[in-house]
Design a protein that fits this description.
This protein has twelve helices and nine strands. It has 346 residues and is α/β, with parallel strands linked by helices. The chain is globular and about 80 Å long. Helix 4 links the parallel strand 2 and strand 3 (135-139). The protein has a seven-stranded parallel sheet with strand order 3-2-1-4-5-6-9, sandwiched between helices. Strands 7-8 form a two-stranded parallel sheet. It folds into two domains: 11-69; 72-343, Rossmann fold, CATH 3.40.50.720. It has helices at 11-31, 37-71, 90-103, 117-131, 147-157, 182-210, 232-251, 271-275, 278-284, 293-305, 315-326, 329-343, and strands at 81-85, 110-114, 135-139, 162-167, 213-218, 257-262, 266-268, 290-292, 310-311. Bound molecules: NADP nicotinamide-adenine-dinucleotide phosphate (NAP). NADP nicotinamide-adenine-dinucleotide phosphate binds next to helix 3, strand 7 and helix 8. NADP nicotinamide-adenine-dinucleotide phosphate binds at residues 86-92, 114-116, 119, 141-143, 168-171, 191, 218, 220, 264, 266-267, 269-271, 274.
Length: 346
C-alpha cells in the first residue's frame, strides 16, 4: 500500500480548507430546497457538520496565531534589537548607519533584512567593524505571502527581541492601475501593507510588556497628498500606513511604545532607478525637492525624540503637505494631473 503523503498544512492552507467547507455548507443549504423533507434533513445535517468543522479549523488557526507573539523572546530593557526592513539600500541603509553608533557599548544588536543578502552582509561587516556592535542579517522577501512569517521565525530561532521596528522596505509601480500586472500589484500590497501590519502585530506585544519600544512606518508625502494618477496603489498603501500609525500611536501612548509615520518627499536612493524614472526625475525635478537619505535618517532619529506621529521632514515637504490640505479639490486635481503627466506616466 502506498504511504500516505505527509500533509504539513500551514495556517493559510487550513484557512482555505475552512473557507471551502463554509462554501460547501452554503451550497448544501441551497440544494436542500425542492427536495423531499427526508433528504432535506440529511442535507442540513451535513451542512451543520461542514460549518461546525470550518469554525473549529478557524478557531485553531486563530489560537495558533494568537500564541505567536508569546513565543518571541521577551524584551529586556536596553537589550532589544533595532530591526530595519529594506536595509540593503537607500533610506534603510542610511537609517542603519545612523542608528548603529547609538547601539555601541550596549548588548542590543542591529538586525538588517531585505532580499539581497550580499548587500546586507557588506553593510553589517562595515557597521560591526566601525562601531563594535553585533549586526545580524536576514534574507526575506516580504512581498511574498508568508514572507513576514519567515522573518519572524528567524527572529525566534536567533532569540532576537525587537525594541525598534522600522518598516521601510518598499518600491513604486509605473502606469495606471489596470496597466499594472496583478502579481506586481499584489506584491506591493503584501510588502507595503500586509507585511508591515503583520510585523507590527507580532512585535508590538513584547514592546508593550516591556513598556518600551519604537515603530517607524516609512510612509510618504504621497500618502498625504490627494491620489496621483499613475501612483494608484502606492499612494493608497502609504495613506494606509499613515492612518494605521496614527491609531497605533494613540493605542500605545500610555504603554511606552512610540509610533511614527515618516512621510518623506523625494529622497536620493535606488527607488527611482528601480521604478525606471531616475533620469527623468533627476533632470526635471528641482533640486530643492530632493533630500539625501542621510539627512532623512538624521531627521528620523530626531523625530523619534519628539512627539509628532505624522512626521513630514523638511520645510518644502511640509509646505506641499499644507497646500494639498488647504487647496480646493479642482486645484489639487489639476496639479496632480499635470505633475503625473510630466514625471510619472509615459
Ligand atoms: N526615495 C524616495 O523618494 C522615497 C520617498 C518617500 C518614501 N519612500 C519610501 O522609502 C522606503 C525605502 O525606499 P528607498 O527610497 O530607500 O528605495 P530603495 O533604495 O529602492 O530601497 C528599497 C528597499 O526595499 C527593499 N525591498 C524591495 N522589495 C522588497 C521585498 N520584496 N522584500 C524585502 N525587501 C524589499 C530593497 O531591498 P532588496 O531589493 O534587497 O530586497 C531595498 O532595501 C520605501 O518604502 C519607499 O516607498 C521613498
Amino acid at each position: 500500500m502506498p504511504e500516505a503523503p505527509d500533509l504539513a498544512l500551514d495556517g493559510d492552507d487550513r484557512r482555505r480548507i475552512a473557507d471551502a467547507l463554509r462554501y460547501l455548507g452554503r451550497d448544501l443549504h441551497h440544494r436542500s430546497f425542492g427536495v423531499t423533507s427526508e433528504r432535506r434533513k440529511l442535507l442540513w445535517q451535513e451542512m451543520d457538520r461542514c460549518l461546525a468543522l470550518a469554525e473549529r479549523i478557524n478557531g485553531e488557526v486563530d489560537a495558533d496565531v494568537a500564541s505567536q507573539p508569546a513565543e518571541l523572546p521577551a524584551l529586556v530593557q536596553g537589550k532589544g534589537a533595532v530591526l530595519i526592513t529594506g536595509a540593503s539600500s537607500g533610506i534603510g541603509a542610511a537609517l542603519a548607519r545612523r542608528l548603529a553608533p547609538t547601539l555601541a557599548g550596549g548588548e542590543a544588536p542591529l538586525v538588517l533584512t531585505a532580499r539581497r543578502l550580499e548587500r546586507l552582509e557588506a553593510l553589517a561587516a562595515e557597521l560591526a567593524h566601525r562601531h563594535g556592535i553585533r549586526v545580524e542579517t536576514i534574507a526575506a522577501d516580504l512581498a511574498q505571502a508568508g514572507g513576514a512569517k519567515v522573518l519572524l521565525q528567524v527572529l525566534l530561532q536567533r532569540q532576537l527581541a525587537v525594541h525598534t521596528l522600522i518598516n521601510n522596505a518598499g518600491f513604486g509601480l509605473r502606469g495606471t492601475y489596470e496597466a499594472v500586472a496583478w502579481p506586481q500589484a499584489a506584491a506591493m500590497l503584501q510588502l507595503m501593507v500586509g507585511s508591515c501590519a503583520e510585523l507590527c502585530h507580532a512585535l508590538l506585544p513584547a514592546m508593550q510588556r516591556a513598556g518600551s519600544g519604537r515603530i517607524v512606518n516609512v510612509a510618504s508625502l504621497a500618502g498625504l497628498v490627494p491620489g496621483l494618477p499613475g501612483s494608484t496603489l502606492y499612494g493608497a498603501c502609504k495613506a494606509f500606513l499613515i492612518h494605521f500609525s496614527q491609531s497605533l500611536a494613540l493605542e500605545n501612548r500610555d504603554r511606552g511604545v512610540r509610533v511614527i509615520a515618516l512621510c518623506p518627499g523625494y529622497v536620493r536612493s535606488e527607488f527611482h532607478a528601480v521604478l525606471g524614472v531616475e533620469e527623468r526625475m533627476r533632470q526635471r525635478l528641482p533640486g530643492l525637492l530632493w533630500m539625501n537619505a542621510e539627512e532623512l535618517a538624521d531627521r528620523t532619529v530626531a523625530a523619534l525624540e519628539g512627539s509628532r506621529t505624522v512626521v513630514v521632514p523638511g520645510a518644502v515637504n511640509r509646505l506641499i503637505a499644507g497646500l494639498a490640505d488647504s487647496l480646493p479639490e479642482p486645484a489639487t486635481n489639476a496639479l496632480s494631473s499635470a505633475f503625473s503627466r510630466r514625471y510619472r506616466q509615459e
